[in-house]
Amino acid sequence: MNKTIKIYIGLLILLFGGAIAIEFSKPKPINWSRTFNERHTIPYGTFVLYNELPEIFKDTIQNITVSPYEFFDDYFNWEDSTYTTSGTYMFIDDYADVGDVSAQELLDFASHGNTIFMSANYLPQKFLDTLGIELKNDFDFTGKAQFSLANPTFKNDSITIDRGLSNIYFSELDSTRTTVLGYQKFSEENRINYIKVDHEYGELYLHLQPMAFTNFSLLKNDNKKYAAAILSYLPDEPIFFDSRNKKQMELGNSPLRFVLSQPALKWAWILGLVSLFVFIFFNAKRKQRIVKVIKPLENSTIAFTKTIGNLYYETKDHNNLIDKKITYFLETIRRKYYLDTQLLDQKFVKNLSLKSGKDFGKTKKTINLIVHLKAKQLCNEEDLKNLNKTIEDFYNT
Question: Can you name the CATH fold of 47-249?
Fold first, then answer.
């Protein structure tokens, strides 16, 4: 190695060392992402609130890491139509990403004497339709907002927030079962942002300013008093906290979780993978070995069926198999009994039982299982076996 090459290598090392020193000396920018994640200590995370919940509610705090339907359905007793657990479901986020199936499950859970607390700028449409509620968004708001509670006891707990706001408020309510609990004020007019809605034997507490529960808000001045006053309406029961770290979205189990969380390392990782694939692609074209000719399988129905069956068995694709069996079963019903299978409700079960001559109880059991599996996100082998046996029993009875 000559002297010139050594100089170049030394300059290159100094260049990289200087770049690393400059990068580490930079102050870390504040992350203003609105995550509402209970693990995040950034301004718009909910780390402070989540860790204070055991002090506010002396009962247990249980995280929900699946959809509300999957969680509460496991506690539902189909024999006597009751829930084997009770408590308060809590959801805090910018947007209530709750599907219609999960929203209906929450309404059912509340109707059995339980409580739902949801703080979000945008509530599930199923809630609005069922509870007779309408929201309105005033896009012309400016400046700060004052949040207050209707109860005179909390008149000193009003707060003012000046960041991350939206002016969404309740414009129409069902006065026969709704109680106004709080207001927001951007100009001179108070607008409703916190209500309690009676739903059969339970209650729903709906709040439209989740920013009040973020780290940024709770650690500023005495804003924690407002959050505590909001939560004081909830019963002292077990809390089912809807975690922002769902199983299917969680990065925590990935070996690359730190690399992927840092933009510079993430792009370096992507660039390295792209370079590796380009290298393999161009070298494979030049040095590829002779591809062995494999005799194709005989084109017979039995062999094809066995191959497909083995493929699904090896891949454990239970959801795909369940979806195909349900689709084929419903197509048979449409073709044989001329019934519309779009809505699998009580009326459909009754019509199917009458037209097919099958026992009403067995027919209802079959359809209920199909509805349950269609809504379930992750099915297992036991679900597939149960569905196959139920459909075979329906055909053979």
Answer: Rossmann fold (3.40.50)
- Cα angle 90, 137, 37 (rounded to 5 degrees) comes to 30
Q: How far apart are CA 344 and CA 341, in angstroms?
A: 6
Q: What is the tens place of the pLDDT at every residue in 316-362?
A: 777 888 888 888 888 988 888 888 888 888 888 888 888 888 888 88
pLDDT digits (tens, 9 = 90+) for 150-179: 999 998 899 988 887 888 999 999 999 999
Q: How confident is the model at residue 379 (pLDDT cuts 50, 70, 90)?
A: confident
For residue 135, name the pLDDT band (cuts at 50, 70, 90). very high
Q: CA 225, CA 329: separation in Å to the nearest integer? A: 57
Report pLDDT digits (tens) over 38-90. Answer: 999 999 999 999 999 998 888 889 999 999 999 999 999 988 889 999 999 99
Mapping DSSP onto H, E and C, the string for the chain reads: CCHHHHHHHHHHHHHHHHHHHHHHHCCCCCCCCCCCCCCCCCCCCCHHHHHHHHHHCCCCEEEECCCHHHHHHCCEECCCCEECCCCEEEEECCECCCCHHHHHHHHHHHHCCCEEEEECCECCHHHHHHHCCEEEECCCCCCCEEEEECCHHHHHHCEEECCCCCCEEEEECCCCCEEEEEEEECCCCEEEEEEEEEECCEEEEEECCHHHHCHHHHCCCCCHHHHHHHHCCCCCCCEEEECCCCHHHCCCCCCCHHHHHCHHHHHHHHHHHHHHHHHHHHHHHHHCCCCCCCCCCCCCHHHHHHHHHHHHHHHCCHHHHHHHHHHHHHHHHHHHHCCCCCCCCHHHHHHHHHHHCCCHHHHHHHHHHHHHHHHCCCCCHHHHHHHHHHHHHHHHC
For position 250, what pLDDT does the model report?
44
